[in-house]
Amino acid sequence: MVKAFIFDVDGTLADTERDGHRVAFNLAFEQFGLDWHWDEETYGALLAVTGGKERIQHYINTYNKPEKNRPDLEDLIKSLHAKKTENYVALLANNAIPLRTGVKRILSEAREAGIRLAIATTTTPQNVTALLENALGKESLDWFEVIGAGDIVPKKKPAPDIYDYVLDALDLKAEDCIAFEDSKNGILSSLGADLKTIITYNGYTRDDDFTGALMVLDQMGDIDHPSSVIQHDYQQDYLTVDTIRQLV
Ligand code: XBP
Ligand code: MG
């Protein structure tokens, strides 16, 4: 009996990375007078590191940026990231990034079926609030019993900590829940917490290794936008709560 669904945010609920986070990072770099620019391909490679502050540090190391020797580097990264969060929230408010196909329907079906909802993400809490409010309305924040996000745990994905935190807050066992993820770092985290995991990949993650997934699809899909199922013998046109219940 499935008792709760736990959702990743970036890449799973919405395609936020290329046209959301990436744009907000680049704007922050400009605002700080830095000549850094993350094009789509560069950003795809940088996504190997989760967490915006960690990603900036990784970029500085990998590209051997002169800023690496600044004595105030830690503060610089913190301020840059705070500006990036401000930019991202403003971007969502002006031009909401839609939820991926089928996400809203799955959330409604789950609510009707009495399945509890939660979020386990690496992104900053304000970003989750902004995405949900803009895409689904303010009241949608109450649909999620637990929102585990950002620095609330010291070790970000691929560590299992954020999922362990959410399971603990829900007071549920992993075997009673399903995780929804889009990336290798995401599934390493959810499997590390012993969660059965459904993958809906995106442009950046289509070639990731999803070994151990319960099912891998290109999207949850809808009646007009059928899913392609990559891994699992599954006959339906799109993912439904009933199908998920039959799978487990
Ligand atoms: C995605 C991430 C985040 C975002 C940027 O998290 O790794 O770092 O790219 O957000 P998930 P921040 O897939 O777990 O939702 O800059 O706030 O970290
Ligand atoms: Mg993700």
Question: Can you tag this structure with a few keywords?
Answer:
alpha/beta; binds xylulose-1,5-bisphosphate; globular; DNA polymerase, domain 1; 248 residues; 2 domains; binds magnesium ion
Structural features, described:
By secondary structure, the protein is an alpha/beta fold. It has two domains: 4-15 and 98-247, 3-Layer(aba) Sandwich (Rossmann fold), CATH 3.40.50; 17-93, Putative phosphatase, domain 2 (DNA polymerase, domain 1, Orthogonal Bundle), CATH 1.10.150.240. Helix content is 42%, strand content 13%. It contains nine helices and seven strands. A seven-stranded mixed sheet has the order 3-2-1-4-5-6-7, with helices on both faces. It starts with a strand and ends with a helix. The structure holds xylulose-1,5-bisphosphate and magnesium ion (MG). The site of xylulose-1,5-bisphosphate (XBP) has 17 residues, from helix 1.
**Global shape:** globular
Number of helices: 9
Kindly name the structural category.
alpha/beta
- How many domains? 2
Specify Rg, calculated over alpha carbons: 18 Å
- Specify the CATH homologous superfamily of the largest domain: HAD superfamily/HAD-like
The CA-CA distance between the termini, in Å, is: 8 Å
Short recap of the structure:
The chain contains 9 helices and 7 strands; from the N terminus they run βαααααβαβαβαβββα.
Question: Strands, helices and their partners?
Answer:
Elements: E1 4-7, H1 17-31, H2 40-46, H3 52-62, H4 73-94, H5 103-112, E2 116-121, H6 125-136, E3 144-149, H7 161-170, E4 177-181, H8 184-192, E5 196-200, E6 215-217, E7 229-231, H9 241-247
Parallel strand pairs: 1-2, 1-4, 2-3, 4-5, 5-6
Antiparallel strand pairs: 6-7
Helix pairs in contact: 1-4, 3-4, 4-6
